[in-house]
Amino acid sequence: MITVDFERLKIEPGMRILDAGCGNGRHTAAAYGLQNATAIGVDLCCADLGEARERLRYHHRVGASGGGAWGLAAADNRLLPFADAVFDLVICAEVLEHIPAHTRAAAELARVLKPGGQMVVSVPRAWPERICWRLAPDYSAANGGHVRIYRKQGLLKLLKATGLRYDGAHYAHSLHSPYWWLKCLVGPQRTDCKAVQLYHRFLTWDIMKKPPLTRLLDRLLNPLMGKSLVVYLHKPMG
Hints:
By secondary structure, the chain is α/β, with parallel strands linked by helices. It is 41% helix and 21% strand.
C-alpha cells in the first residue's frame, strides 16, 4: 500500500531517498524503482527489516529497480545515523504517531534533508482515527502503539518548526477506513471474524489488481474519509 504520491514530487535521476520507519519496505521498494535512486530504509523492528530485505531482493530479481541501489539499517528516527543534509527526499509514512518524542524525530528528519530537498509525512487522519479509538479502547496499543492523534494544523506546526516549508497535502486510502472501523468494532486483536477476513481479502485484491472502478471510488471518497493525511514539504535553500 503506497501512501506517497510520487507524481507530486520533483523526481530526478540519482536521488538519495530515506524511508524513515520503513516497516516492511513498501516505500523503500517504490523509491528503489526510481531512476538510479539510492533508497535507504531504516526501522527499529528487525523482523520488518527482514521483510523489507526480501521485498527489495524480489524487486531486483524481477527487474523492478531503476538501476540504483538500496540499503537497510536498524535505527531510531530520533537519532538517525546519517550526516547532515545527505538526502534529496525523506519519507516518513505512518510513523510519527508511534513516537512520544515526536519533536526530536521531526528535527532529525529535517536535519538529514538537503537544502532544496523534499519531505513527505503521512499520519492517520484525525476523525477516522478517533472513531477507532472510541470503538476499541485497546486499538492504539494493538496497532503498534499510537500515542497521539494529529490534526492537520498540529502536524504542520510540528514540521514547520524545523524550518520546512509546506507545499500541499491530500488524503489517502478511503477504502481502508471502514476496514479499521469494522476491525475495532469486533476487537482489534481478533483474527477469526469472517467479515474482517473478507474485507482484508478485498483490500489485498484491490492493491494488487488496481481495478479502475475501486481506484475511482477511492479517489472520490478520499477527501471525505481518507484514512491517511499526507503532507508535502521542502527545506529552503540557504
